[in-house]
Amino acid sequence: MDDVQLQLLVDLHKSQSRQGPGGEAETKRAMELAGLDRSRHLKIADIGCGTGASTILLARELDAEMTAVDFLPEFLDELQARAKDHGVADRIVTLNGSMDALPFKEGQFDVIWSEGAVYNMGFEAGVSAWNRFLKPGGKLVVSEITWLSAARPAELQSHWETEYPEIDLASAKIGHLERHGYSPEAYFVLPVHCWLENYYRPMQSRLDAFLERHGWSGQAKAVVDAERLEMALYEKYRDYYSYGVYVAKKM
Ligand code: SAH
User: Fold this and answer.
1) Measured from the CA of 72, which atom of ligand 1 is nearest?
2) Ligand 1: nearest atom to the Cα of 19
3) How many whole angstroms from its chain centre is CA 247?
4) Which of 20, 44, 108, 229 counts the highest number of beta carbons within 10 A?
């Protein structure tokens, strides 16, 4: 991806409330499944936080000291502005860095949270690298694109084999957790509204203004075409894949 393309993606996604499928109710459900509540002060890292949909909710719901990590400073600036609006800016520190080279100490966190982001380094590499930053008994909550059925239509299979070859069944993802120092505790599937109402439709409503802003350039059109293809595939094949939300305890 070149610089112009990256800046186009930042421009398209920065004003969205989230940069991937998810939802407040689902983040809260994962919190409950991980046994997180206000009874304890928690140190939490939110990795690949984007503009902070989950970071801000966790900061509001829990007694938490949040470290929000993303490699795009534009998203972190936006996160800070939103955190201020919600009155939780003093509970969040942002860190501009890459998820595959985190400067954390061993056992620094009670919780590692990551929604719709670990695919950037790959699920297995991510969960294995992040394990050492958790205290023993600490919780990992991570969402990851997941096949919902063992058999898939060929068109869908070949799309995702190119986009993210690590896409797999929940059983395979849970196996990675088991082999990399975790005890899996819960798994659920993000429902359709997390994709459509919360992510794709708000983006769809911004596409024309986005093209206008960028003079209908070839590169802007390519960004829009790719997003439209992804949305069309989701509408057609949504029974076959979603994000799985995985909750696991560090052994
Ligand atoms: N968790 C947010 C954002 C998900 S989109 C949400 O659910 O809304 C994925 C995020 O990962 C983006 O914000 C992107 O900038 C970030 N990202 C991609 N590669 C990264 C890397 N190598 N290190 C850190 N962040 C990365």
Assistant:
1) 15
2) 8
3) 14
4) 44
**For every residue of 75-95, which 3-state class applies, written as one string?**
HHHHHHHHHHHCCCHHHEEEE
The alpha carbon of 247 and the centre of ligand 1 are apart by a number of angstroms equal to 19
- For residue 84, what pLDDT is reported? 98
CB 55 within 8 A of CB 82: no
Do residues 67 and 134 touch, judged by C-beta distance below 8 A?
no
The pLDDT of residue 237 is 98
Strands (E) across the chain are located at 42-47, 64-70, 92-96, 109-114, 134-147, 168-169, 182-189, 241-250
Among the atoms of ligand 1, which is closest to the Cα of residue 18?
8
DSSP state of 132: G
Pairing between strand 182-189 and 168-169?
Answer: unpaired
Enter the tokens of residue 179. 């082999």
pLDDT in tens, 113-134: 999 999 999 999 999 999 999 9
Q: How far apart are CA 26 and CA 61, in angstroms?
A: 13
Do residues 210 and 33 lie in contact, with contact meaning Cβ atoms separated by under 8 Å?
no
Integer Rg of the chain from CA: 18
Residue 1's pLDDT band, with cuts at 50, 70 and 90, is confident
The alpha carbon torsion through 206, 211, 212, 217 (nearest 10 deg) reads: 170
Whether the predicted pLDDT of 181 surpasses 90: yes
Three-state secondary-structure class, residue 31: helix
Structure tokens at 131: 């394990």
What's the count of helices (H) and strands (E) in the chain, helices before strands? 11, 8
